[in-house]
Design brief:
about 400 residues; mainly alpha; two-stranded antiparallel sheet; 20 helices
């Protein structure tokens, strides 16, 4: 090899080494050559660590992938490989749905953003992309300051929480973080009663209200008349508790009759105020929250059924969270607290199936359970992965559950 060739080769090696050392990101320039839209994000205020450190290969494969964007794995699994501290198993009412479903990119940018935490929008602008301002008090004449200013994370957690509604703290602790429950101001606003340890949201809306003091719109008549002694006889809250259901049923006598049904919703730890607010509510019938949330507070199995991703065919009332469309809330003489027997409960809406040809009722017996065949023998009322919410595939698997000879 001639001396000229040796010098030229050394020059080339030195040049390559210098370029590699100065750039510190071999191959990154090649990515930006084609992905000009990504190149514009280099100067953004917030950057994802792999993007800032030019480690494109942490998330993408350079050659081929089954995933969109040449990702190495599904988005949720890819994110959780690094963000292992984020839990996704808090339960259906305690996990933010986009997070539970692995839709991380609904809220975060994968490369860089002008907002903290790589958020695609800032504050309330991001949350109201899914959560309507027309519900929950956000359009009320008086709004809670954090809600008005879009500071949702002052009270809520973005991924999951140990408390309902993704609350940052227990309901009794959350409000007193800013609004002290003791002192002259608190006593004056509550008829001189101590509210320490109370659930503030049993009377006040956390987002907004058309009433003074953010009091909820529907008031229990004694509460509206400031007639506390009608329920609280001798000893404030403890006085009401000592009277038990009598405190409510002395006025609501029709409900007292409903509780005498074969299957009653009273007892076993259930109490009137487990479902109803004794003071104020934004819901019908003084419900503490929407039916779905109230019912799932105890019936967690139904909550899991309602959120099961495998149940692609859902009953419309289940999807809307209208449990009382099929079930009696206080008491029923039918199984499962249904408003009527299992057949009539279904055929009341599904009228063309009332004369269905498959034997049902007492003249047909399910050989597995030895019970009469009803609609829910074949259909799952909470939803299923088969058409018509069938428990099994209707082409054969469903039928051979009972008809073993085929």
């Amino acid at each position: 090899m001639t001396r000229t060739c040796i010098i030229l080769l050394a020059f080339l090696l030195l040049g390559c080494g210098t370029a590699r050392a100065e750039g510190g990101r071999p191959g990154f320039e090649n990515c930006l050559t084609c992905h000009a839209e990504i190149k514009r994000l280099v100067g953004a205020k917030a950057g994802h660590s792999p993007f800032r450190e030019f480690r494109c290969g942490s998330c993408h494969t350079p050659h081929a992938s089954r995933e969109k964007g040449l990702l190495k794995d599904e988005v949720a699994d890819l994110c959780r490989d690094c963000h292992r501290d984020l839990k996704a198993d808090m339960g259906p009412d305690r996990t933010h749905r986009p997070f539970a479903e692995g839709r991380c990119l609904s809220c975060h940018s994968p490369h860089a953003a002008e907002n903290p935490k790589l958020l695609v929008k800032r504050g309330g602008d991001l949350c109201f992309g899914c959560h309507s301002k027309d519900q929950g008090g956000f359009a009320a004449s008086t709004q809670h300051r954090p809600a008005r200013e879009g500071r949702c994370l002052s009270c809520h957690r973005p991924h999951g929480s140990e408390h309902d509604a993704l609350a940052a703290k227990d309901r009794a602790e959350l409000c007193v973080s800013c609004h002290p429950a003791s002192g002259a101001g608190a006593a004056k606003g509550h008829q001189g009663m101590s509210v320490a340890g109370s659930d503030c949201m049993s009377c006040h809306s956390p987002h907004g209200s058309d009433r003074d003091g953010l009091v909820k719109k529907n008031l229990h008549p004694p509460f509206a008349k400031k007639s506390c002694s009608g329920c609280h006889q001798g000893g404030g809250r403890e006085g009401a508790r000592s009277r038990g259901a009598e405190a409510c049923l002395s006025c609501h006598q029709a409900v007292a009759q409903e509780f005498k049904a074969v299957n009653s919703h009273v007892g076993g730890g259930a109490y009137c105020v487990s479902c109803h607010s004794p003071h104020a509510s934004d819901q019908e019938h003084q419900m503490r929250a929407g039916q779905q949330r109230v019912c799932r507070g105890c019936h967690q199995d139904a909550g899991r059924d309602g959120q099961d991703a495998g149940k692609t065919v859902r009953h419309p009332l289940v999807a809307k969270g209208q449990c009382s469309g099929c079930h009696e809330p206080h008491g029923s003489n039918s199984r499962h607290m249904l408003a009527s027997d299992e057949i009539r409960a279904c055929t009341g809406c599904h009228k063309r199936h009332a004369a269905f040809t498959h034997p049902v009722g007492e003249r047909a017996q399910d050989p597995r359970s030895k019970r009469d065949v009803t609609c829910i023998t074949c259909h799952d009322p909470m939803g299923a992965g088969n058409e018509y919410a069938l428990r099994f595939d209707r082409r054969k698997t469903l039928c051979v559950q009972c008809h073993k000879g085929y």
